[in-house]
Design brief:
Length: 286
C-alpha cells in the first residue's frame, strides 16, 4: 500500500474537498484525484460521494479512516524507532497551539521529562487545523487545543474548563468600551460571543492574534482586553491588573486530541501528566 494514498485520503476526509486537500498536500488537484482513484481501485469500493458541496465519506470511507490513521501512525513510529540508536526507546510526539506554548505545553513537557528522563519527546507548536491534521495522519500522538473541530478517527477529551475574563490596567475601569482596549483573537466562538456582547467594538479596537503577546503588550502600555483566567490570576493578585466590572465571562475550555486506539499505554502516560500539569499553580501559566 502506497502511504501517500492514505495521506491523501485522510486529507480529503479532513478538509471535505479535493481542492483543499491538494493545497494542504502541496500537489495539484489532478494528483489528488488520481491518488483517490488508485486507492478506490485497489480497495474495490467508493470512498467518497463527490458533488458541488465537496466530498463526503461513504460508509466504506468512514470505516477506512481509523485503519488508515493507525497505519500512518505506525509508520511514523517505525521511522522514529529506526532513527534512534536505542531500538527500545519510548517516543512521544505532542503538540499545542500557539497560545499554549508558554503555558500548559511547557508544564506538560516538564512533567513528562521528570517522569521518564530517557523518553524521547518531540514537540510541535502550530495552528489548531494543522495539529489536527498531524494527529489524524499519525505524526502526532496527542495535541492540546482550544475548541477543536471533530474529526474522524480522533478522540477529544476535556482537560480543563477555563474562562476568558475582561481585565484592565485601570483600577477604575468599568467596561471594555474605552481607549486602549485590545481585541485578542481567541477563535470564532469567542468572536461571535464578543460581538453579541459588544457590537461594533472589534472594528474600533487594536487587534492582537496571540494571547501571550497581547498580555505582555497590555502590561507594558496599559489598556484592557479578554484573557484566560489562569494567565491573569497572578497579575490580579499583584495589583497589576483588575477585573472589569459588569462584563460577561466566556467559556474557553481546553481539550486533548489523540488517535482512537493506537499506543494506548503511551497515550495514557501522556494524558496522566497532562492533567497533572493542568493543575499546577497559576503562576506557572503566566
Amino acid at each position: 500500500m502506497d502511504l501517500d494514498l492514505l495521506r491523501t485520503f485522510l486529507e480529503i476526509s479532513a478538509s471535505g474537498t479535493l481542492m483543499k486537500a491538494a493545497q494542504r498536500l502541496h500537489v495539484t488537484q489532478a494528483t489528488v484525484s488520481a491518488r483517490l482513484r488508485v486507492l478506490e481501485d485497489e480497495l474495490g469500493v467508493s470512498l467518497f460521494v463527490r458533488n458541488k458541496s465537496g466530498a463526503q465519506l461513504t460508509k466504506e470511507g468512514k470505516a477506512l479512516v481509523p485503519h488508515a490513521t493507525r497505519m500512518l501512525r505506525g509508520w511514523q513510529h517505525a521511522l522514529s524507532a529506526l532513527r534512534s540508536p536505542d531500538a527500545d526507546v519510548e517516543l512521544l510526539s505532542i503538540g499545542g497551539e500557539f497560545a499554549l506554548w508558554s503555558a500548559l505545553l511547557l508544564n506538560w513537557l516538564v512533567a513528562l521529562r521528570r517522569s521518564r528522563p530517557h523518553a524521547v519527546l518531540r514537540t510541535h507548536v502550530d495552528t489548531p487545523a494543522r495539529l489536527l491534521d498531524a494527529v489524524q495522519a499519525g505524526s502526532l500522538d496527542m495535541a492540546i487545543l482550544y475548541s477543536p473541530l471533530r474529526r474522524p478517527g480522533i478522540t477529544t477529551s476535556l482537560v480543563l474548563e477555563e474562562e476568558l475574563v475582561a481585565v484592565t490596567t485601570d483600577q477604575d475601569g468599568s467596561g471594555p468600551d474605552q481607549d486602549g482596549y485590545v481585541y485578542v483573537d481567541w477563535g470564532p466562538d469567542f468572536a461571535a460571543a464578543h460581538d453579541r456582547a459588544f457590537p461594533g467594538l472589534r472594528s474600533k479596537s487594536s487587534y492582537v492574534g496571540l494571547g501571550p503577546l497581547a498580555l505582555r503588550f497590555l502590561l507594558q502600555v496599559g489598556g484592557a482586553g479578554y484573557f484566560r483566567t489562569r494567565a491573569v490570576e497572578p497579575y490580579l493578585r499583584s495589583g497589576q491588573l483588575f477585573l472589569m466590572r459588569d462584563t460577561p465571562r466566556f467559556s474557553f475550555s481546553l481539550y486533548a486530541v489523540s488517535g482512537e486506539r493506537d499506543h494506548a499505554p503511551l497515550r495514557q502516560w501522556a494524558w496522566t501528566h497532562l492533567t497533572a500539569a493542568a493543575a499546577w499553580p497559576a503562576e506557572s501559566w503566566a
